[in-house]
Amino acid sequence: MPILYDEQRRCFHLSNDRISYIIRLAAGKYPLHLYWGRRVRAVSDDLLSRLCSYTDADFSLNETPLDSLPQECPVFGCADLCEGMLHILHADGTHALDLQYVSHQITQGKKPLRGLPSARGEHAETLTLTLLDRVSGIEVELLYTLWPDIDILARSARIVNGGASPAVLERALSACVDFEQADFSLLTLSGAWARERQIVTRPLVPGDQGTSTVRGASSAQTSPFMALLSPGTTETAGEVYAFSLCYSGSFTASVHVDQHAMARAQIGIQPFNFSWTLMPGDSFQTPEAYLCFSADGLGGMSRQFHALTHRYITTGRYARSARPLLINNWEATYFDFDEDQLLALARCAKEAGIDLFVLDDGWFGHRDADNSSLGDWYDDVRKLPHGLAGLSEKIHAMGMKFGLWVEPEMVSPDSDLYRAHPDWCIHAGGRPRTEARHQLVLDMSREDVRDYVVTQICAAFRRARVDYVKWDMNRNITMYGSARLPAQRQQELGHRYILGVYDVMRRITAQFPDVLFESCASGGGRFDFGMMCFMPQAWCSDNTDAHTRCRIQYATSLVFPPSTMGAHVSAVPNHQTGRVTPLEARAAVAMGGTYGYELDLLKLPDDELRQIASLNRRVKALQPLLLYGAFYRLKSPFEGNETAWMSVSEDRREAVVTHVFAQAQPNVRPSLLRLAGLDPSLDYREEKTGRVYGGDELMQHGIRIEKPWNDYRAQQFHLTTVSSSAPSVPSGRE
Ligand code: GLA
Predict the structure, then answer these.
(1) Is there a catalytic annotation at residue 443?
(2) Distance between CA 619 and CA 497 in Å, rounded?
(3) N or C: which end of the chain has fewer CB within 10 A?
């Protein structure tokens, strides 16, 4: 039983073999946060008093010292003086809340969250702590789920208006942890289009810090993730407390360091531009937050998040299986294509061993540029005289799978849909509608809009007999306003939009259980666990330049495994940076994710096509390991001229190591790269050289990296354990 309740001490102990999380009910009514970290076997009196210097006697009727105590669900308005998890406007205009324990439940598994994506609860146990504000009747359920096999706790809250008057949620976060000290660095991921998820680390300082967005999407600029690193934390050592949110809309992840140098870490829906009216009897479910503790540095944290993704987040046929090698026509043709061109490209791809042909933007309405036709999901017969059906049939006849790009959440002002339903987009009354990429955002809070989208998109998928879908979303929300919502509910639109998107995704993906879905938002503009619950992979970035992509994929891997990261080989000079990198480097970097191509193969010389065919055979052979192996980052592109990572099989008998140099340097010696995750007692043979190394040698001494003779040199090592007949004395060292 991972969750125990000690009635005498009024203490909840959530634990598995490696971590503990302890909550104590102070004075029987306020849930205090006592401990989160490496497992403790039991909660002794000593531990209780060491972890919390306050006794029940300190809680007198009118003087609760909550301001200086670590709490599980702090709210401003009782005795707490900082921003807490909730802020609720009562009908009388006041905000006070005094949430006190009324009951708890410990149950097997975990229920799905209403309207929201969430992790599956197989093998897990859930604690529900119910708190009540007796004056208003507001009830709060705090949900905690712990799995036996991952060091992650899922948290969320459900708020029920059990009173007789309406109440307005102005802030409803998912999780809060009050640390009794603030000696941490804060790591967050910031970026921009084509520069998504760059690592930013800084020490905590008194006051507020964190990361957040108001863009209506988890965004390219920020990520719903933050980690607190204890001093000296590295990839392999140090205690890390990380937070990630299963949500795709505006969010906040913040840390407040108070007068006593206590750190309050919180994560949830962005309170700015948000409110939600709860009529009597209504409830509101917050998104799920994942709290990960690692005693093994950032690498340990990532492997826990990766295990969460593979075991409890991604679903469907492709969640744990090989992904088809794809070619996408976007950078080969952009909008300018016809059926013959596409078929010629597909034929060439098939010969090179590519499995899936993806038709990107421009196949519908009269879309010759990005300024029309979104919403009109019918085939453009000028480009496809036999429609999607005809093209798909021909591609399938080649023995290839067929995939399609759509952007279901959008509408172009130049479209039949917009002309028929100008009020179906998000807009603020009679104000001019701000376009971005010449498009407007459909109001997914409306059921009629969602029904239209589901019908049209499913019809296109059926016509095309799709095996794969790229679901794009290319702009953020401005001019918030819905023609359907009453004035006092307009601030619900941001969250209702995301709930609407989830509803549409749920309905569509359910109708196509064998189709591989990849999400995209101008690249990696919505790369979060919410999307991952519906679609097991996401286009990591529009940036396909092997050099700068290293950073994006390296940082993305902090939370997400390679199986989730769409990564393609593209043409040189690169379309985003103009950089020329060798094919091996582009392929090595793309092998760090779900592999594919985004270029015109017909323009390549024969020797490059042969090289691509051989790369494809290699990717297929190594794919299970590359996508699902235990992932170790070895060299950070944020710290130097090299990037290196490796994947190790579950039984530690096979590994693939990838090393990429950026700029070549003159007159440098070969270097050594220390590996990780191998079995020190086993010997490994490197595929290309045939050399045999001890696992201990590879991890303690390293493998030799030749000095680069050209910029962006990539090297890959495939290691497999030698059979018992092979020499037991390692002979790799020179
Ligand atoms: C976005 C995507 C690209 C491509 C274009 C098509 O920018 O990120 O990969 O699909 O849209 O318009």
Answers:
(1) no
(2) 39
(3) C
